[in-house]
């Protein structure tokens, strides 16, 4: 909006100052994570009110915490586990969401309305409502402590989201495109796979990226369904293996938090626009 | 719910015959895929299967667990409403219920106010706007547990950087024990939740703001309306549908929150900061009392139900309007 009136100081007071305050507040914890990662233990455990010449940076950066993470813990394994689980559950969810979204957006059948509504309702069911019975169910299926316990349960919150997002996307694609293909002799399935899905690629990408970050972020199922150290995901591994009793290994903890965030941040950095489209699409009815 | 191939060809011949110029062989599968109804059910089958197995069934199973005395390794027996009665008479559960409502209410107000403010700031044109927007979303995309750990470090009773800053500014002489005091701990949790939620509100509301016609604002400005009036009379009403949906979504997430409290306090000190989800975890997983834990997590259900109904009603209304 070209509504910025007033001159210099006023603009600083009502616009730049609050904006910078927001950015500073929102980013400071990440900066602190970064500083702590490279700070030697001697500087980390200085009581809060001890005189301190370099409070916000360090003059003796060290890679010790990162080394500890990879040699004394299974951080590498956790990274791999998280990556594997996130990718597979995202792919399963995209597959299901594509088919379901297409059916709900394009095909006329009796239960369309009620099935659409029930998928939307499952979208709103938080994992915290179901983790106790689900823990029991994964035990019955002998999935506990395997990646499959998560790969099969993450789609419960990813599929509804993908379906909902892609349904909205399919609705914006003109019906005529498909009809032309069908007149040329393509079957329904051919028209769907060859004509509609390629056009929906941006939507698919948005849904996929968003689903990937959601699975990377998931905590409670991973905490409850996995128990051995080798099977853990990054969030669970960092919280459970680097805090022992009352002892917090802050250096490695922050290094783990930083490195565990990088894959998501990386994906995000490359696809900001798609991510934002997924985010805003996820709340649009 | 799943695709029943019985409906395949029969009775649908009329609809199926119309738009098919080059008649492909009437093999079973081909016919099935060409029929709108059976194709729809086939496409929905994988989704229906997964959601039935891992949402609908666990939900029913959870309701059943809640009325049994099940523990880990022991299926238990039917005990009626006993688990709910016990929760009803449990002072920690009372505290948990109050915490959950306070937490949801307070954070929602702050997230909406700050998120709206940030959205309005971002809706202006300025250099590096794209970068600002990208960076602002970081708290939302970085895994919550990991960013919450950074906060826990910042709240550390002995090494807190926040305390250091306040002390340097001359605001405090005694350390603040952010997570050690029961009220302060709840406030700290609220601060972190607001921090994490503001970007989501801001970016969603910004998307809504971009659809508001700037000419309306300009016209009102020419008529002498102040910025404050323009916001409440023009922007706010036009943005209300988006705001409603964002708030309802966020209320569900916040009400059922687990990670923040689990990392920052584990419900402590002295069980003073539990939310429904963390208390259910402590009882159901920590202590292994599945029945009792399931009953506690079902306490989430009535409120979630109301919010979901509200949301469905609201979406219906805006769709038909």
CATH topology of the largest domain in chain B: MetI-like fold
CATH architecture of the largest domain in chain B: Orthogonal Bundle
Instruction: Give the C-alpha Rg of chain B.
Output: 26 Å
Number of helices of chain B: 16
Quote the average pLDDT of chain A.
Answer: 89
Compact summary:
The complex is a heterodimer of chains A (285) and B (321). With 285 residues, chain A is mainly α.
Feature tags:
heterodimer; A: 285 residues; mainly alpha; MetI-like fold; two-stranded antiparallel ribbon; 2 strands; 74% helix; B: 321 residues; 16 helices; globular; disordered N terminus
Annotate the secondary structure layout.
The complex is a heterodimer of chains A (285) and B (321).
Chain A: H1 8-37, H2 41-44, H3 64-72, H4 75-106, H5 112-124, H6 127-140, H7 147-153, H8 155-171, H9 175-183, H10 188-199, H11 201-217, H12 220-225, H13 234-241, E1 243-244, E2 247-248, H14 250-270, H15 272-283
Antiparallel strand pairs in A: 1-2
Chain B: H1 13-17, H2 28-34, H3 36-66, H4 82-88, H5 91-122, H6 129-136, H7 138-141, H8 144-154, H9 161-168, H10 182-209, H11 214-222, H12 227-255, H13 259-264, H14 276-286, H15 290-298, H16 300-320
Helix pairs in contact in B: 3-15, 4-15, 5-10, 5-12, 10-12, 11-12, 12-16, 14-15
Describe this structure as you would to a colleague.
Chain A is mostly helical. Chain A has one domain: MetI-like (MetI-like fold, Orthogonal Bundle). Chain A is built from 15 helices and two strands. Chain A has helices at residues 8-37, 41-44, 64-72, 75-106, 112-124, 127-140, 147-153, 155-171, 175-183, 188-199, 201-217, 220-225, 234-241, 250-270, 272-283, and strands spanning 243-244, 247-248. Chain A has a two-stranded antiparallel ribbon. The mean pLDDT of chain A is 89. Chain B is globular and about 70 Å long. Chain B has 16 helices and no strands. The chains are: A mainly alpha (285), B mainly alpha (321). At the A-B interface, α1, α4, α5, α6 and α8 of A face α2, α3, α5, α6 and α7 of B.
């Amino acid at each position: 909006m070209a509504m910025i009136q007033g001159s210099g100081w006023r603009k600083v007071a009502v616009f730049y100052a609050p904006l910078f305050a927001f950015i500073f507040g929102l980013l400071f914890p990440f900066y602190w994570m970064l500083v702590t990662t490279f700070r030697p233990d001697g500087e980390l455990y200085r009581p809060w009110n001890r005189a301190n010449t370099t409070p916000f940076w360090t003059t003796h950066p060290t890679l010790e915490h990162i080394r500890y993470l990879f040699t004394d813990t299974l951080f590498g394994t956790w990274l791999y586990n998280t990556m594997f689980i996130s990718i597979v559950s995202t792919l399963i969810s995209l597959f299901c969401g594509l088919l379901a979204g297409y059916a709900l957006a394009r095909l006329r059948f009796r239960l369309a309305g009620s099935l659409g509504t029930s998928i939307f309702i499952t979208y709103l069911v938080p994992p915290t409502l179901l983790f106790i019975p689900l823990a029991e169910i994964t035990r019955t299926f002998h999935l506990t402590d395997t990646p499959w316990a998560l790969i099969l349960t993450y789609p419960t919150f990813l599929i509804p989201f993908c379906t909902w997002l892609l349904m909205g996307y399919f609705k914006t694609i003109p019906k005529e495109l498909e009809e032309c293909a069908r007149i040329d002799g393509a079957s329904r399935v051919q028209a769907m796979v060859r004509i509609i899905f390629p056009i929906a690629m941006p939507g698919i990408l948005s849904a996929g990226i968003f689903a990937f970050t959601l699975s990377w972020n998931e905590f409670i199922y991973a905490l409850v369904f996995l128990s051995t150290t080798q099977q853990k995901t990054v969030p669970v591994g960092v919280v459970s293996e680097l805090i022992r009793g009352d002892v917090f290994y802050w250096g490695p903890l922050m290094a783990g938090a930083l490195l565990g965030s990088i894959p998501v941040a990386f994906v995000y950095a490359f696809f900001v626009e798609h991510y934002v489209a997924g985010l805003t699409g996820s709340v649009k009815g | 719910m799943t695709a029943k191939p019985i409906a395949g060809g029969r009775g649908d011949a009329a609809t199926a015959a119309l738009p098919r110029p080059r008649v492909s062989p009437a093999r079973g599968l081909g016919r099935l895929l060409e029929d709108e109804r059976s194709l729809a059910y086939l496409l929905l089958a994988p989704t229906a299967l997964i959601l039935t197995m891992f949402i609908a069934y666990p939900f029913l199973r959870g309701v059943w667990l809640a009325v049994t005395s099940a523990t880990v390794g022991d299926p238990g027996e039917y005990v009626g409403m006993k688990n709910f009665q016990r929760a009803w008479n449990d002072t920690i559960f009372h505290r948990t219920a109050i915490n959950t409502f306070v937490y949801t209410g307070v954070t929602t107000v702050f997230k909406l106010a700050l998120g709206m403010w940030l959205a309005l700031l971002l809706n202006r044109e300025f250099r590096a706007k794209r970068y600002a927007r990208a960076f602002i979303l970081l708290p939302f995309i970085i895994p919550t547990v990991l960013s919450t750990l950074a906060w826990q470090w910042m709240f550390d009773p002995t090494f807190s950087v926040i305390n250091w800053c306040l002390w340097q500014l001359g605001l405090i002489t005694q350390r603040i024990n952010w997570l050690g005091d029961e009220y302060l701990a709840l406030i700290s949790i609220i601060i972190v939740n607001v921090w994490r939620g503001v970007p989501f509100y801001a970016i969603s509301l910004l998307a809504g703001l971009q659809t508001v016609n700037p000419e309306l604002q300009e016209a009102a400005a020419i008529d002498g309306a102040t910025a404050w009036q323009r916001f409440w009379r023009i922007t706010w009403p036009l943005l209300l549908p988006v705001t409603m949906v964002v708030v309802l979504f966020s209320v569900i997430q916040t009400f059922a929150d687990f990670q923040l409290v689990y990392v920052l306090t584990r419900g402590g000190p002295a069980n003073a900061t539990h939310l429904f989800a963390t208390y259910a975890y402590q009882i159901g997983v920590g202590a292994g009392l599945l029945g009792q834990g399931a009953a506690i997590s079902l306490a989430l259900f009535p409120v979630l139900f109301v919010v979901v109904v509200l949301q469905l009603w609201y979406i219906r209304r805006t769709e038909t309007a």
